[in-house]
Write a structure and sequence with these properties.
By secondary structure, the chain is an alpha/beta fold. It is built from 20 helices and 30 strands. The strands form seven sheets. A seven-stranded mixed β-sheet has the order 3-2-1-4-5-7-8. Helix 10 packs across helix 11 and helix 10 packs across helix 13.
Amino acid sequence: MQTMSTVLIGDEALLAECGAQLLARGHVIKAVATRNARLTDWAREHGIVVLQPGSGLAAQLGGMDFDWLLNIAGLNVLGADVLALPHKGAVNFHDGPLPRYAGLNAPVWALIRGEATHGVSWHKITSGVDEGAVLVQKRFRIDPDETALTINAKCFVAGSESFVDVIDALEQGAEGQPQDLSQRTLCKRDDRPEHAGFLDFSRSSAELERLVRALDHGPYWNPLTTPKIRLGAQVVCVSTAQIVEANGAPGEVLAVDTDSVTVACARGALMCTGLLCQQGLPVAPDTEITKGAMVPLPDPGCDQALARVVNGEGVWRSALHAMTSAPWPAGMASVSTPLVAVGQAKASMVAGFAVALGEQLGLRSFDLRYVTAEMASHLDILSGWVPLRIDLDVADLVASIENQLALAARAPGFARDIAARDPQLGVLNPPPIAVCDGGDAPDAGLVLDLRASVVRHDPASLSPAAAVAFVAGMAANSNGEVVGAEPIDTAQAYDRICIHHAFEAQTARTPDAAALSYEGQSLNYAELNARANRVAHVLIEMGVGPDTPVALCVRRGPGLLIGALGILKAGGAYVPMDPSYPADRLAHFLNDSEAPVVVTEHALLDVLPAHQAEVLQLDTDIRLATASEANPESGATPDALAYLIYTSGSTGLPKGVMVEHGNVANFFAGMDDRISHNPPGVWLAVTSLSFDISVLELFWTLARGFKVVL
């Protein structure tokens, strides 16, 4: 067998499954292009270069010599520049049987159309979407209770199981079976079920129940739409449905309670359960409709309305995930202040507004609500607004705003059920500060009206004089070029001391205050300090001093803090070694840092990689029982190392980053300006010691008198 060299592209777990099979067969993976953090970790653990998929992929692959390009559940269409790089060709994994279901979301469409079987295909990539010769195809049965979630899971299993045949085909140089394109059906990205997902009760209960299952993606992102019904004035999403033996006029409510509503269909009836508003929150149907009422037929204009916005859904969804609304009291009485000497270009007016707003609020980045006249239709299923991101540190603020306004013109809004389809979004509240271009935002507290050339505002939060000054600031900044032009002096004096000295000073102030809580265990400041001092004195006896790296491999619990503080008090720099990490990564940490000592626990001795370092077991070492509880004098200064932490790296191997006590003291001073700590409170510490935000959670808190709940 001749060894094949490959490059893999994809963002789903199937890539790692197939990659493992390639490696097990002795083949080489030269690079993985992915946006998935877990796949990035998998690749780097195997010493594989990680690249970013998308438009710049060809340049990243330039100069790389490889046989096959394998697109495994990657959704980007690969350009000719990328496809020209592999010597032998490119192969794509498709989650549907070709040629019957080409394109996207094949499992959903197969369910909607009542197919009895489905399958996956591995085919060669050509210039046409999913048109290349099929190397391997594996089919499976669609069971009566299948959902999009379960079909996708079956596709994953089928893809993994059939990949062994794909490797065989590639090794043998198989040409594959050409497709009969006369049988082809192409499912496009922006295709949606008819009626925007509204259930049409003039159809049979079997059809509608199948549609509900087809749109059930479980806890994962639903890229299409939700099945919906209109209960009274509210549009409600249907999570699950069950066919029941009952009759009535199509659309008639036959039964309703707090959990379900049963509606008559053309044949049979459908009991709809798991009802949610379009924000994803539960709805009690008996508060919305009564028995005997009629659920209306779908609005024939829904399809056209939804089609206007679906082309921008990916961008709007990303923007909603990142949205941080600029704060302002909303929903009060409104007065207007005319604009004076402000540039007429929309983007320039918005830029001036944003700069003045940033100065008013002390913010550099925030989101506004953007509303146009085109967004005012079908507000029952469309948002009526989009987020407008303002970043006052971009090179060209006006251009950034122009691009967003252009997108809003192409895709005027997003589907309101996006929150129900993406559980990670949560409830979406439009920002209270709005920019209106023909549309209206009556509930906003501050509005820039582009058509009327006025700023509308709540007089209780912006006085007439302040409003005039605000508008004058808009005029001065309407070109967006003065943002950040004046240098700001941020220097300030701070206490440049070691982490452990700051903790010791706090201990002297509040020795009896609660310092640490973990499950049923708790320590006050004096107790935590004493136990850390014992560790420090033993480490000093073992030769630890300033700048000595000391590996810390301890389970989450009091020992984590006691060990870390003990290392710092001895003058050493702790090297976090999370025991849940893979063995090869822990070995790299230990070997690369050259730590002469490992602080650990007896139960973790088998977790540690082979090493020559001395070991201090926090739970069994008898030297700790007799060690001094006094603060040690290690000779460490603010210029000494505090910790050596390993990044995820970009070349396959994590890199060690060295941080000094003085750096941490500077960070602490910055946190003092941002986080209230007088009086100190209780801090829930959730971050692994392997990520340096833990320095805030564990050491800034203990240097300021907090109780840390680990």
